[in-house]
Design goal:
Blueprint lengths: L7 H19 L21 H26 L4 H24 L5 H4 L3 H16 L9 H21 L17 H20 L3 H19 L10 H9 L1 H17 L6 H22 L12 H24 L10 H5 L1 H18 L12 H24 L7
Helix pairs in contact: 1-2, 1-12, 1-14, 1-15, 2-7, 2-10, 2-12, 3-7, 5-6, 5-14, 7-10, 8-10, 10-12, 11-12, 14-15
């Protein structure tokens, strides 16, 4: 997406969902209201935290048609695009797995503390995937930094010991971590766009296919695919790909709307959002709303909410041109991966130093608990934006 044609509402909603993700991840749910957190796996319902991640998945899918079209306009071939998709997918999955395993480090067996292992891992991640400004002027220096990061990651992986029988104490893929789930969803949606290109019908059919897989998995009717599930479980279970491909479908609606007028687009967005919500509540007769179980009803309801929230943001920011209200978190949408990782780095750094930074979490006063997490989330967005100005930002 070029700067001239950039859809401001996409960056704004990505920034909003990321800000909310940082907020709910930091909350002390022993004090905060239940509706702000996650619901239990067997509870039929949703809290704010149960929508935030699928909201981010949805907006990631929306960006795909614009991003791939932009690369094509720069002369990249289909082979180039597929290579980029695979590189980005593997990168997200690798970082996701590494993050997932930070809590499993056994300090005695590994030889270093959990916090130090995690900090060294994040340092290596930035060495490898940083968007170096001098990569054209100093290619050998940048390559040296990247190779040093790869070397450090290899050392950390070989040193890793969990002391648990699972996978002989080595790294596990587990549920792939947040970034790993994003990687698998991105792979499904990006390849869908490569195959279906600008066809709304074919993209809708792809979303329906993943919804069907999600329904089969929820009914226990896809066990014949179990041999492939250890690697391709996220794709086979359908839930994450359905949400991301649904975002791609809405992104295509936006991309293909040139010349049709905002009224037609907004009408179609509202209809799509309402239909998705209605379908989700219809399926609730058979499947509870559950993020933990990744039920199809939950996926449809979250998608419907995402479409309607995006529509509101689109009308305000792109139709009426009112963007000032979003300036304080919009940078998070333009620098999302760095913004997501920065709090994790600080958690480990603060944990290693034993600094009393999170005093607000110990309070029993609700405004202090909520206000502290809001301030923390905003500071993380600003810190990531400051790091970007210093030339430190991830780009996959």
């Amino acid at each position: 997406m070029t700067n001239q044609s950039r859809i401001l509402s996409i960056d704004i909603m990505r920034g909003l969902t990321l800000l909310l993700m940082l907020f709910v991840n930091d909350l002390n749910m022993n004090v905060a209201p239940a509706f702000m957190g996650h619901t239990d796996a067997d509870f039929d319902g949703m809290g704010l935290a149960d929508w935030v991640f699928p909201g981010f998945l949805f907006i990631a899918g929306m960006s795909i048609p614009f991003a791939i079209t932009n690369r094509i306009s720069k002369g990249l071939t289909q082979t180039d695009n597929i290579k980029h998709i695979l590189y980005r997918t593997v990168s997200l999955i690798v970082i996701g797995i590494l993050m997932l395993n930070t809590s499993r480090v056994d300090p005695e067996l590994t030889g270093i503390s959990k916090n130090l292992w995690a900090l060294l891992m994040y340092f290596a991640v930035f060495l490898v995937w940083n968007n170096y400004r001098s990569k054209d002027e100093k290619p050998f220096t940048v390559t040296g930094f990247r190779l040093a990061g790869v070397g450090l990651l290899i050392i950390l992986i070989f040193k890793f010991k969990s002391g648990q029988p699972e996978n002989d104490g080595s790294l596990i893929t587990g549920w792939w971590g947040i970034l790993g789930l994003i990687g698998w969803g991105y792979l499904a949606a990006a390849l869908t766009y490569i195959l279906c290109r600008n066809s709304l019908l074919l993209t809708a059919l792809a979303a329906a296919l993943f919804l069907g897989l999600n329904i089969l998995a929820a009914l226990g009717l896809s066990t014949f695919l179990d041999p492939a599930r250890p690697l391709l479980g996220v794709i086979i279970d359908g839930n994450v790909p359905f949400i991301v491909v649904s975002g791609t479908f809405v992104g295509l609606m936006l991309k293909n709307s040139a010349g049709t007028g905002n009224k037609t687009l907004i009408r179609n967005l509202v209809i799509s959002g309402v239909l998705s919500l209605a379908a989700g509540f219809l399926l609730r007769e058979w499947f509870i709303l559950s993020k933990i179980k990744a039920t199809p009803s939950w996926g449809l309801v979250c998608t419907g909410i995402s479409i309607l929230v995006f529509t509101i943001i689109y009308v305000i920011s792109d139709v009426f041109g009112k963007t000032g209200w979003a300036e304080f978190f919009r940078p998070a949408g333009e620098n999302s991966l760095t913004t997501y990782l920065v709090p994790n780095i600080l958690y480990h750094l603060i944990g290693m130093g034993g600094l009393p930074v999170f005093f607000y979490k110990q309070s029993q006063i609700l405004p202090i608990v909520i206000g502290g997490s809001i301030i923390w989330a905003i500071l993380m967005v600003w810190l990531a934006a400051f790091m970007k100005r210093l030339g430190i930002s991830l780009k996959l």
